[in-house]
Every structure is written in C-alpha cells, then in structure tokens.
Amino acid sequence: MDVLQAITERRSINFFEPGIELADEKIKELIELAKLAPSSMNLQPWRIVVVKDSERKKVLRKCAFDQPKAEEASAVLIMIADPGSLEGSIGTVLQSWVDLGYMKPEMVATYKGMAGSLYGTADSLRRKFFAVKNTSILAMNIMIAARGLGLQTHPMDGFDEDCIKKEFNIPPDKIIPMLITVGYLRSGITLLPRAYRKSFEDFVTFNSF
C-alpha cells in the first residue's frame, strides 16, 4: 500500500476483532517505521509502553473510562512525551551530527546552548509543549504506518492520565498525549462514510491569517 492510500484509508476504528494477538515482531516493525518521524533537533522526546497482555488491557480499559476498544484491540500504545529527555539525548544526537559531517565538533557547545534557549528547562511549559508536539508527530506516523501494514488504529484522548501513570509505573513528570489502539476491524462491521471535514476554504489562507 502506498502512502497516499494509507492516508486516505486510515480511519479511527471503534470496533476491533477481540482475541487476535499481534506478534512482537509486527509491533517492532510498525514502530521502527514510525520512529522515522521528524522531531525538533532530532531529539525524539518520546517513550512508548506497549500493552498486549489481556489482564493489563483490562486495567487500561478501566483507566480509559471503560471504553471496550482499550481491551479488545490487539495492542494499545501508551504514547509518552518526556520533557526531561533532552538532557539525556542531546549529546548522542549532536555527536551523530559531527560523525556524519553535519557540523564541526566545535559547534557542539553552541547547539547545546541553543537547545536550552529554545526549549527551556525540563519543568517549563515550553519544554512540555516541545515534548507533546514531537510525540504527536510520532503518533500520526504510527497510525499511517499501521494502515500501510494492514492494521487499524484509533487515537484515544478519553482516559484518566493519573490512573494510567499509577497502574503502568509511568513517572509523574511524563505526559501522556494519547493512547493508540492497534488491531483489526471486527468481522461483520461496515464502516460508515467518513464524517464531516472542513473544506479547504474553511481553514486555509495564504500569506496572512
């Protein structure tokens, strides 16, 4: 399936075929494709917890306001934005730029300072926005890549973040922008036509708001 077909065929699926397990290798293939998503300064401030175990999905369902798809999907990805990852990643990222010839070694300190100025301290609102924006780009790549692999997805915003953090041992400084359910459309379900979308003219202008 080409990328344009994957984009046009991607839908947010509410009804997954229960009882179908996704192999770890398939999930790895999906995420390896999706991780090619762009990120600010290539810092990749994200983590993912893959929930596959049936009992753990039951727990996740409770945290997601008892939505069945959180349990019935083959896997649920807890998308985690990590505001504090910049400090741990930037040295590796900048060294790769040096090794690949993107910049000279003497520029490393300048770029470290630039990152601090752009993204603020680890506990700042600016840093949180940085992490969430980049993790959301990764999430969209996951959904498109999943469709290309013949899978269906649904990005979920309806959940109790504190409940998920407690039940899945996620540190309090992390942010969960969304869950992504992954699996196959339930047999016998026919999708309704795609719902209302704004027209191009409704939300696009050129050169000025």
Classified by CATH, the class is Alpha Beta
Morphology: globular
Radius of gyration: 19 Å
Helix-strand pattern: HHEHHEHHHEHEH
**Beta-strand percentage range:** 5-15%
Uncertain stretches of 5 or more adjacent residues? none
Cα separation of the termini: 36 Å
Mean pLDDT: 97
In short:
The protein has helices spanning 3-9, 24-34, 54-63, 69-72, 85-100, 108-119, 125-148, 161-167, 200-203; strands at 46-51, 75-81, 152-156, 175-183.
Provide an overview of this structure.
It is a single chain. This protein has 209 residues and is of the alpha+beta class. The protein has a single domain, classed as NADH Oxidase (3-Layer(aba) Sandwich), CATH 3.40.109. Helix content is 45%, strand content 13%. It has nine helices and four strands, in the order ααβααβαααβαβα. It has helices at 3-9, 24-34, 54-63, 69-72, 85-100, 108-119, 125-148, 161-167, 200-203; strands spanning 46-51, 75-81, 152-156, 175-183. The chain has a four-stranded antiparallel beta sheet. Helix 1 crosses helix 7 and helix 5 runs antiparallel to helix 6. The longest helix is centred in the middle third of the chain and has 24 residues, at 125-148. It starts with a helix and ends in a 6-residue tail after the last helix. The model has no long low-confidence stretch (mean pLDDT 97).
What's the SSE blueprint?
Elements: H1 3-9, H2 24-34, E1 46-51, H3 54-63, H4 69-72, E2 75-81, H5 85-100, H6 108-119, H7 125-148, E3 152-156, H8 161-167, E4 175-183, H9 200-203
Antiparallel strand pairs: 1-2, 2-4, 3-4
Based on the model shown, name its key terms.
209 residues; NADH Oxidase; alpha+beta
